[in-house]
UniProtKB/TrEMBL annotation:
Residues 1-345 form the Major facilitator superfamily (MFS) profile domain. This is MFS transporter. Its main location: membrane. GO terms for molecular function: transmembrane transporter activity. The lineage of its organism: Bacteria, Bacillati, Actinomycetota, Actinomycetes, Streptosporangiales. Keywords: Cell membrane, Membrane, Transmembrane, Transmembrane helix, Transport. The chain crosses the membrane at residues 60-80, 92-112, 118-141, 162-185, 191-214, 226-244, 250-273, 294-313, 319-341.
Amino acid sequence: MDQLPARIDQPGQSGTWTTREIDVVETEIALLDGVPEGGGGSAVGVLLGGVLTGGPSWEWVFYVNVPIGVIVFIGLTRTLPTEPPTGSRVRLDVPGALLVTAGTGTAIYGLIGAGDRGWVSAATLGLLAGAVILYAVFVVVQRTSRSPLMDLGILTRRPVTSGIFLILVATALMISVFFLGSFYLQHHEGFGALQTGLLFLPVAVATIIGAQAAGRLVGSAGARPTAVASMLIAAVGLAVPAFLQGPMPVVIGVSLGAAGIGAAFVASSTTALSQVAHHEAGLASGLLSTFHEFGASLGVAVVSSIAAASLAGSTDVGFSQAFTFAAVTAAVSAVLALLIVPTVRPAVADSI
């Protein structure tokens, strides 16, 4: 379990993208407000993960979130404005909330264990089938509820679905390469947890640079060119460790790939949120956050299955195959982005 330090930064990144998504709708020009903080969170995350894993134990990667959560909660209670409710009270859709939560949890649990249990095992297929059933019931409840949890029509809009596609792929790639890179550096190159964390600092910096560059590009050229360029850069970067082994090729390749992935996060947020009304911003952001988690689970499940032999320590061929799969996925996603992502810029929709 000592491969965990390179993945502790995931919550920080998730929060960064979510914060920025809201800012797009609220201020039009705040797309990159959270990028420096998110990159700094990534840097602190990999270092802290290495310190905890190499010191107390890997379990502290989870324990440390308790005091952090308490501090954040106290801070929110003191800083968030208290606005009295206006208008009529909206009834909470409890059945819908329970169904979508259960469906998402079941799907993620099924994906996480697919690498160990097998993709066609009864347990994996049963969990994924159960998730599909729960989602189907959720759709029925939403269509018949007087106060539905979400407007399902938002999923038929091309900008929103394109943004979901980009966030799904970008997160799958990011978490996959962190997972693969940390395993490779520790188990095949003999680096410790803290050393691995230090080696991943360039990845955090590259993510910042990519996101900053994408913020400028998306404002002038639009989301489609930004999405295509970001995926192509990611494909080139991830192809490096696919063909060249060793610490430096892995760090350099993953860093270049992270620059492209960071840009893809910006493109996904811009695409999904630039054309939604003010009252739909929370729903669209929630969809991005949900598929962010799906992407993380799916990415790790797929690459761990491909690299199974290497993860067990018998060969390093699996790492090359997994990085090759990631590079091909990014390249194919670039082509799909060219076809499906609309050319939108970070501007507030007319209906806001």
